Amino acid sequence: MGARWVLHLDMDAFFASAEQLTRPTLRDRPVMVGGLGPRAVVAGASYQARVFGARSAMPMGQARRLCPHAVVLPARFALYQALSERVMGVLADAAPVLEPVSLDEAFLEPPVLAGAAVADVERFGTELRAAVRDATGLPASVGAGSGKQLAKIASELAKPDGLRVVAAQEEQAVLAPLPVRALWGVGPVAEAGLRKLGVHTIGELAAMDLRELTGLLGTAIGTELHRLARGLDERPVAPRGAAKQVSAETTFDTDLTAMTAVHDAVARMTEAAHRRLLVSGRAARTVTVKVRSADFSTSSRSETAGSGSTDLDTLTAVAQRLARAAVPEGGVRLIGVSLAGLIDDPPPALFEPARLEAVPAEAPAPEPGDPGQQPTDGSAAIDTIARPWRPGDDVRHPKHGHGWVQGAGHGRVTVRFETCSTGPGRARTFAADDPDLVRADPLGSLD
Ligand SMILES: [Mg+2]
User: Fold this and answer.
1) Are 418 and 135 in contact (CB under 8 A)?
2) 156 is catalytic
3) CATH of domain 245-343
4) Which of 19, 105, 109, 224 does the annotation list as catalytic?
5) What's the N-to-C CA distance of the chain in angstroms?
6) Alpha helices, DSSP H only, in 253-409?
7) What is the pLDDT of residues 28-62, one digit of tens each?
């Protein structure tokens, strides 16, 4: 059997690229995906926004200060999920075994490449990138190496929209100058410990005495990292067992004593766990609430339903009911909410076009050009209640077709009519209550 070739494919700025794909006016512009609430974080940033320092997982407020001219759009998970399925379909055609890591990245180890020359791997990677672009219209980067670690590092080096194949004889040269954080399993704690020993790069780590490393990090992790640092990585590419639960918890600076405060905290934790549930593309049957009291005793309550749910209101109601039963006398120190019993193929409700919050009718309309209040994630109930148009909403007009709301306020709404296939479209302004303007499925922007 020849040398291994593992490939890692990673979509470039996936969420933001999906927005730019389906809303062509945004193609060369800084785009950030995420909410605008006080706790909102950036879920995705286009390369044009990254130039200014905006990054995924950064607080949205900070990102907007760095890049004030960026277009901020709410996440459209139904769209990202649909594009992800196309990507994974291409990869599954290319290799029998596929290990998805998230919506937009996966490992593969095509049997046809076992023992192949670098040129063959480059040809395969080039064709794979082209096939993904054909199927989605989106850029992907591909890295290849003798194991998963090297493939992952190579795809990072290939970005954006590139290919990097690390040949066996250049492994050491590629790995050695990288910071230790680039290795699997090196988090901030291990990094700090290594730094104290004067070890900053993978090359320095590879040169360490194994006993010194295991003394610092423990036998299992120390041994594994020492091997990875030298390019030795036999971990198989295999379909991964999906996460068994998604959860969120928080510890309070001062113990909560009021039930309303507990309810609010439970709602926030449910919302955070729900966001992870949506990203996983699954539905939850079990809700568990964990409560730690001021005296550090912990109790939890669980409830399991017959069918899975992705509805934030439903899950929050269950969690709050459970919290009422679990809250002790004398104050709450920590609250956690987990969603488990995760099942695939969530009900269609997850992919309803309008997964929106109800806004009271008297809510002030946002100023033109002001993105207004957006959901901080793809949360909340189906849109049965009228609410003002918000930037990023998908709409349909009998004459102009599919479009998206660019701005709204003062009884007017400005819509850009364009989709994946139209090229940059025209903006038109309507009365906000124009009956011809209806909410549309985000997937319509892929037509
Ligand atoms: Mg990516």
Assistant:
1) no
2) no
3) 3.30.1490.100
4) 105
5) 45
6) 259-280, 312-326
7) 999 999 988 877 889 999 999 999 999 988 999 99
How many angstroms separate the alpha carbon of residue 14 from the centre of ligand 1?
A: 5
- Centre of ligand 1 to C-alpha 413, Å, is 33
pLDDT score recorded for residue 384? 39
Topology of the domain covering 176-229: DNA polymerase; domain 1 (1.10.150)
| CATH tag, 1-168 | 3.30.70.270
The answer to whether residues 101 and 107 touch, using CB atoms and an 8 Å cutoff, is yes
Contact assessment for residue 157 and residue 143, using Cβ atoms and an 8 Å cutoff: yes
Low-confidence ranges of the chain (pLDDT < 70): 1-2, 240-243, 279-281, 344-386
Q: What pLDDT shows up at residue 305?
A: 82
* C-alpha of residue 312 to centroid of ligand 1, in Å: 26
Q: How far apart are CA 103 and CA 100, in angstroms?
A: 7
* Among the listed residues 119, 105, 127, the one whose alpha carbon sits nearest the alpha carbon of residue 5: 119
Contact 1, 23 (CB under 8 A): no
- Reported as a single tens digit per residue, the pLDDT across 274-301 is 887 876 667 888 999 999 888 878 888 9
Residues contacting 287, CB < 8 A, separation 6+: 270, 302, 303, 315, 318, 319, 322, 337, 338, 339
